[in-house]
């Protein structure tokens, strides 16, 4: 056996030597030598010609680099004063006897959501509405059953209304080809677009983007606070957010900012960017902050803009940061105004609520960035909020001393009384539990934070 292995090894060595000899002979052949000489001569000629044009090459490269640096620069100037700040720090005595705003709490739910709806309303009652007693409107695309109405009436301290959404507000637009829409939803399902294959989800996104504020039950109200089943508020709210929004001239308020899945809305940013250009809306700090600028030189950016439908006319992308709209407090007079109505009509005519899976969250975000002043947007940085799988925690970084505490060390604790008395926290009576939700990267919170108050949010607040 050993003899056979040795013989095989000798044969392999002989074969390698033979191949090497053939290769060496080929390299040393007159034809190969001539080719190498020709290639070397061509390179030398090219280098000589390039040397003659070297000054122009340097100038072109320098201009290209400067143009790229200018294009990707941050357009956000340093703010002398922040455009937004918390309405309160720590705890205060609630204004129990003060006048209330023309406002309502609003929940879209199904009969099967009864347990999650009860949990969410109990949370908002415990943290806020037990002293404010604002009305609550529940919406459903089908009539609520007695189990739902009885359970939710029993946990709500304000006036309760149960309403069924008209079919015209919960269906495809008449101008959209139904067969084309059905094929698009099958495509989305096959390509794992979240909820892309669920027609009812598309109806919901369209309704939340452009119809809820026209419901008859909401017509008498100016402000709304959106609540979803299974959410939890983890800090006491000891002031009236509607009154404070009105007093500060705010029109839209959010808690969590995070990334959108670009597969749900691949063309939304391009279409809204073109719409903004067409109507000459000014560029706000927030709109600028939502742009992911391309590092490609100008000609390539123009080619990208022509060939990729997720880029604007300058060849840039949306960074997909948006406000998570499962919580929002907003002025419905803004939605009911001509600018927002025209914008929604433009999007509805396009058909992207079904041909893609446009969500109301990115639409509200990009609409606010386009149509509102930066100073009209408010971040409820002093509120704790959980919507699985994510949560917002306002107190944690205030309690940390330059990173001495890790976030996990604050699990399941109520902020100590002595800390509240020293105003070393932003929220009031906050309960921090990382068992509620997982950690989310603060990138989008910082992007928006730099636009609205001139500093990153990561050193002040935490999203978990």
Structure in words:
There is one protein chain. Helix content is 45%, strand content 12%. It has 464 residues and is of the alpha/beta class. The chain has a domain at 166-210 and 231-381 and 446-451: Spore Coat Polysaccharide Biosynthesis Protein SpsA, Chain A (Alpha-Beta Complex), CATH 3.90.550.10. The chain has a seven-stranded mixed sheet with strand order 3-2-1-4-11-6-12. Helix 4 runs parallel beside helix 5, helix 7 runs parallel beside helix 15 and helix 9 (268-278) packs parallel to helix 15 (360-371). It starts with a helix and ends with a strand. 36% of the residues are buried. Mean pLDDT is 84; it is low at 396-424 and 458-464.
CATH first level of one domain: which class?
A: Alpha Beta
CATH architecture of one domain: Alpha-Beta Complex
What is the CATH homologous superfamily assignment of one domain? Spore Coat Polysaccharide Biosynthesis Protein SpsA, Chain A
Number of helices in the DSSP assignment: 18
Q: Multimeric state of these chains?
A: single chain
Query: In terms of per-residue confidence, which ranges show pLDDT below 50 for 5 or more consecutive residues?
Result: 396-424, 458-464
Overall geometry = elongated
Spatial extent as radius of gyration: 30 Å
Please give the share of residues in helix. Answer: 40-55%
The total count of strands amounts to 17
Largest sheet: 7 strands, mixed
Main β-sheet, spatial strand arrangement: 3-2-1-4-11-6-12
- Find the structural class using helix and strand composition: alpha/beta
Span of the ends, CA to CA: 66 Å
Strand content: 5-15%
Q: Look up the CATH topology of one domain.
A: Spore Coat Polysaccharide Biosynthesis Protein SpsA, Chain A
């Amino acid at each position: 056996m050993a003899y056979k292995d040795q013989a095989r090894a000798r044969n392999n060595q002989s074969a390698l030597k033979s191949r090497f000899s053939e290769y060496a002979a080929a390299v040393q052949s007159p034809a190969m030598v001539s080719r190498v000489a020709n290639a070397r001569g061509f390179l030398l000629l090219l280098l000589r010609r390039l040397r003659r044009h070297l000054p122009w090459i340097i100038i072109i490269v320098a201009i290209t680099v400067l143009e790229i640096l200018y294009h990707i620069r941050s357009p956000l100037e340093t703010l002398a004063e922040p455009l937004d700040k918390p309405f309160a720090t720590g705890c205060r005595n609630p204004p129990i006897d003060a006048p209330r705003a023309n406002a309502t709490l609003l929940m879209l739910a199904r009969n099967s959501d009864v347990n999650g709806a009860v949990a969410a309303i109990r949370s908002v009652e415990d943290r806020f509405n037990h002293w404010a007693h604002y009305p609550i409107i529940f919406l459903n695309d089908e009539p609520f059953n007695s189990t739902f109405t009885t359970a939710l009436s029993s946990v709500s301290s304000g006036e309760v209304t149960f309403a069924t959404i008209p079919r015209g507000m919960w269906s495809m637009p008449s101008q959209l080809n139904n067969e084309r829409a059905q094929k698009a939803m099958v495509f989305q399902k096959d390509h794992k677009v979240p909820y892309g294959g669920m027609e009812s989800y598309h109806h919901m996104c369209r309704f939340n983007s452009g119809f809820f504020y026209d419901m008859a039950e909401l017509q008498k109200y100016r402000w709304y606070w959106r609540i979803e089943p299974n959410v939890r508020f983890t800090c006491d709210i000891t002031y009236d957010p509607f009154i404070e929004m009105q007093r500060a001239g705010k029109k839209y308020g959010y808690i969590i900012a995070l990334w959108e899945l670009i597969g749900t809305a691949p063309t939304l940013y391009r279409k809204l960017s073109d719409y903004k250009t067409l109507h000459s809306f000014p560029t706000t700090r927030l709109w600028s902050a939502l742009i992911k600028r391309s590092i490609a030189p100008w000609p390539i950016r123009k080619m990208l803009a022509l060939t990729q439908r997720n880029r604007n006319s300058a060849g840039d992308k949306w960074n997909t940061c948006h406000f998570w709209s499962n919580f929002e407090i907003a002025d419905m007079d803004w939605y009911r105004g001509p600018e927002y109505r025209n914008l929604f009509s433009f999007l509805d005519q396009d058909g992207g609520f079904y041909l893609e899976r446009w969500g109301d969250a990115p639409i509200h975000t990009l609409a606010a960035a386009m149509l509102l002043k930066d100073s009209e947007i408010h971040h409820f940085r002093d509120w704790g909020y959980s919507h699985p799988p994510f949560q917002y925690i306002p107190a944690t970084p205030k309690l940390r001393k330059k990173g001495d505490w890790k976030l996990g060390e604050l699990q399941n604790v109520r902020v100590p009384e002595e800390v509240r008395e020293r105003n070393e926290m932003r929220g009031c009576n906050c309960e921090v539990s990382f068992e509620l939700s997982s950690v989310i990267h603060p990138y989008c919170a910082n992007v928006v934070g730099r636009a609205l108050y001139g500093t990153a949010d990561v050193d002040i607040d935490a999203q978990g």
